[in-house]
Amino acid sequence: MAIPLSFFLLLFPLLAPTFVFSSPVQDPEQVVQQVNESIRNATMARRSLGFLSCGTGNPIDDCWRCDHHWEKNRQKLADCAIGFGKHAIGGRDGKIYVVTDPSDHDPVNPKPGTLRYAVIQDEPLWIIFARDMTIKLKEELLMNSFKTIDGRGVSVHISGGPCITVQYVTNIIIHGINIHDCKRGGNAYVRDSPTHYGWR
Ligand SMILES: *[C@@H]1O[C@H](CO)[C@@H](O)[C@H](O)[C@H]1NC(C)=O
Ligand SMILES: *[C@@H]1O[C@H](CO)[C@@H](O)[C@H](O)[C@H]1NC(C)=O
């Protein structure tokens, strides 16, 4: 019986964040009201401050753009969310990972420097991009938990191939990238963590 016990101990730390963060909200209507209020507040702030304001009227953007040093404080974006994803921390508590390579040649053994290599890792990561790039994925991008994809400051497009899948994971933030012209992938193996890949 030693085996099931150690199996349980191993699994529990992995599952604990899921229990904490995926519990349904107490009062969905209240969440909707808060979003409404945030939008109203941001709109009013924009009107009253006029052209001198850094405000856009978008409460999420207004939350980070007004900081001139936002590039030095990227993880503060995690506190800017509104609505049902408000508490998602993404890769806030992890390292910054810089994507330098737009290619996606091998979805089972992604190359370091690619977006796919970054998103499958087990550790939390705040993923940014070295330069403007268009990423044509070969297969869908299966994200692991506690990741932020942060395209602020550069122009990043994911297009022309399969796009992003977020399933059975928690704490994902995706901000400031363009995702369009997605095509169906599949009938292929795709890695979703350093230790697992599956048939899609
Ligand atoms: C917020 O709610 C009010 C009244 O319930 C409504 O008139 C208004 O259009 C809503 N605002 C937004 C931004 O959804
Ligand atoms: C909207 O502004 C009011 C007044 O400043 C503030 O009390 C309230 O917390 C704000 N609501 C949101 C959701 O930011």
State the share of residues found in helices, binned by percent: 25-40%
End-to-end Cα distance, whole Å, is: 35 Å
Task: Tell me how many strands there are.
Answer: 11
Main-sheet strand order equals: 1-2-5-8
Helical element count?
4
Shape call? globular
Order of helical and strand elements: HHHEHEEEEEEEEEE
Summary, kept brief:
By secondary structure, this protein is an alpha/beta fold. It has a domain at 87-194.
Name the features.
single chain, 200 residues, alpha/beta, four-stranded parallel β-sheet, 27% helix, globular, disordered N terminus, binds 2-acetamido-2-deoxy-beta-D-glucopyranose
Can you put this structure into words, describing what you see?
With 200 residues, the protein is of the alpha/beta class. It has a domain at 87-194. It is built from four helices and eleven strands, in the order H-H-H-E-H-E-E-E-E-E-E-E-E-E-E. The strands form four sheets. The protein has a four-stranded parallel sheet with strand order 1-2-5-8. Strand 1, helix 4 and strand 2 form a beta-alpha-beta unit. One 2-acetamido-2-deoxy-beta-D-glucopyranose is lined by residues 34, 37-38, 41.
